[in-house]
Design brief:
It is elongated and about 40 Å long. By secondary structure, the chain is mainly α.
Length: 151
């Protein structure tokens, strides 16, 4: 069931970014998903001629709130990583819904977002507290990477 939800979120991400004003059928969503597959091991995020990429203003609050949730979790030595995962999924869902980006900046953002979504999924499915804390640290690092490449 969780895989279906994650797959659905991925489709929604791709659909909302590429078809902001169009309605889409499931067939079109599946095609969009196939076209946007990224192999995170082979594609490093690039800067925009040495500058950070601009992210639309509607998306920024959701990234910043997610980062805030992670930092607060770490600083307060919280232990309910399952709740953190739920909160991060919510912020990611809102981020995806607010996407109106296109072109190279959109593609570069996907290179960050896909691995980020995978980390949140890992956290959600984790059963070991020690491993969960390692994943939380990786998510925190993911937000640092975001700030290196995006404004």
């Amino acid at each position: 069931m969780k895989k279906v939800i994650v797959f659905g979120m991925a489709i929604m991400l791709l659909w909302s970014c590429n078809n902001a004003t169009e309605k889409s059928t499931m067939h079109q969503e599946t095609e969009s998903h196939a076209e946007h597959h990224h192999d995170e091991n082979s594609e490093a995020i690039e800067l925009n001629n040495g500058e950070k990429w601009l992210v639309n203003e509607e998306m920024k609050p959701f990234v910043l709130k997610g980062e805030e949730l992670v930092n607060e979790y770490i600083q307060a030595n919280k232990t309910d990583y399952k709740e953190l995962a739920v909160q991060l999924k919510d912020k990611n869902s809102q981020l995806i819904k607010s996407c109106t980006m296109d072109g190279k900046s959109h593609d570069e953002l996907h290179k960050w977002l896909h691995p980020h979504l995978e980390l949140v999924k890992e956290l959600e499915n984790e059963t070991d507290t020690t491993r969960a804390n390692e994943i939380v640290s990786k998510i925190q690092h993911s937000y640092q990477v975001y700030h290196q490449f995006f404004n």
